[in-house]
Structure formats: C-alpha cells, structure tokens
Amino acid sequence: MIPLYDDIASSRRPYLTYIIIVSCTFVWLFQFRTGLSGNDAFLLQLRQFGMIPSSIVRGKRLWTLFSSIFMHGGWLHFLGNMLYLWIFGDNVEDAFRRPAYIVLYLLAGIFGNLLQVLVAPHSDIPTIGASGAISGVMGAYFVLYPRARVLTLVPFFLFARLIYLPA
Q1: What's the predicted TM-score (pTM) here?
Q2: Who's near 142: CB < 8 A, 6+ residues apart?
C-alpha cells in the first residue's frame, strides 16, 4: 500500500518538514555521488556516519545515533521515507508547532536507533535511515487524526486500486 494524500488540510506551511526532506535529499545525493566513485567509498561512508550498535554499547560514536537518521540505503528507501514524511509530517508539524515537532522527529529517530541497539547489541552492521523518526511522526498522526482518511494506492499483481483508508 502506498499512501498518496490525506484529507486533513494544514493551517500553515510545514517548513520544518520541508527542511527535513531537503536535508535528507542532500545527504542522499552525497551518498549517491560517493557510491558512484566506488563501493569502498560508499561502505566507508556508511561505517563513518551509520549507527553501529556495538559501538553504541561501548559508549563510542554516540553522535551516529543522530547522523544515521539522515542517511538511506537506496532509492526506494529514500523515496518511501520522504513520501510518508511529506504526507503525514505537515499535519503533525501543524499540531505540535515547530519546536516540539523537531524534538519529536529527532527523539523518535534516536529511540528507533536505540531500539535497534537493544535488539542487536553486538552487531557491527551500520544502521541507517529515517524510518524510526518517520514512524514517530506517523504514530503522532494516527493519535491526533484517527478519523482522517488517506487516499492509498493498493497494488494487486498487475492491477492497482485507489481507496481511502482510515488512519
């Protein structure tokens, strides 16, 4: 299922959502450009800025709990996260107001990373992505707007159907 639009209008422009999307886009373009110069450069970048659970357990590289939130593992990962943020972030930013919204976004991302540390504390594999942060935004959306309707594309083999689903 792919959400396309929700029926809740924002009362003001979601500038922080725009800034987050632009920030993730710049980081992704930098990652992509680095990947073009070779797989080793891309892997080095992942190890440098991605959150590695075993390092966090040892109290090292704690800043990667933050930096990894803006990285993505591929085009679909990046586009999916930004689509969900675009659709649900504007309303949450509107309801929370900007200072609380950015705190929600960052804390949800950091706690998502800490959950990964709890699940796999000895892992040396870098974790990247805004999925934890965006899950926090979506959770807030579902609590704030449980009766909202979301126009959703539902693919079924070669066919697809547009339906409104409740949040």
Answers
A1: 0.89
A2: 167
